Amino acid sequence: MGKDLEKEKKLKNKENLKTEKNLKIKRKNNILIKEFLNFLEFEKGDSERTLIGYKRDLKQFLDFFSKSFDKILEEDVIEFAQHISKKLKESSILRKMSVIKSFYKFCYLNNFVTNDPTYAIKNLRKSNYLKSKNKNENEIFTKEKKSKLKKIYDDIKLGDD
């Protein structure tokens, strides 16, 4: 009986530590999102509606992983793109990926991250519908990172701005 109580106590402590860690990560992410949104509002003059959308998209992206913004890797960005491509219209996918790319550019230029996990993703433009929604998951990705990105955005014209 005493061992069961002790095991239960240890389990609760582990759960509490995990919850506390997740809250710290969430706070850290939220602080940087706020910094980014302030930059967009005051330096670039973006509208309130734009800022609300950016905030929603960034929170969705960062909450998807439950890890700090500075721990996100290129593979994570690709995984997120694959995830949202199953549910959203092309225009929504392009907007979200553009927001994420802008966020990491801001982070990189302000030394919040040492590597930009979105660097290999070129600016995307609206073109044809994603055909990757119709492919099975094994066909979407290949082993090389650039091939992965090309397959995720199958039939989306990659543009160089």
TrEMBL record:
Task: Check the record and name the SUPFAM superfamilies matching this protein.
Answer: lambda integrase-like, N-terminal domain
Using the record's annotation, list all stretches that form the Core-binding (CB) domain: 27-108
What the entry lists under PROSITE patterns is as follows:
CB (PS51900)
Keywords recorded for this protein, A-Z: DNA-binding
As one GO molecular function, the record gives: DNA binding
Q: Name one GO biological process term.
A: DNA integration
Protein name stated in the entry: Tyrosine-type recombinase/integrase
Q: Taxonomy-wise, where does this protein's organism fall, top ranks first?
A: Bacteria, Fusobacteriati, Fusobacteriota, Fusobacteriia, Fusobacteriales
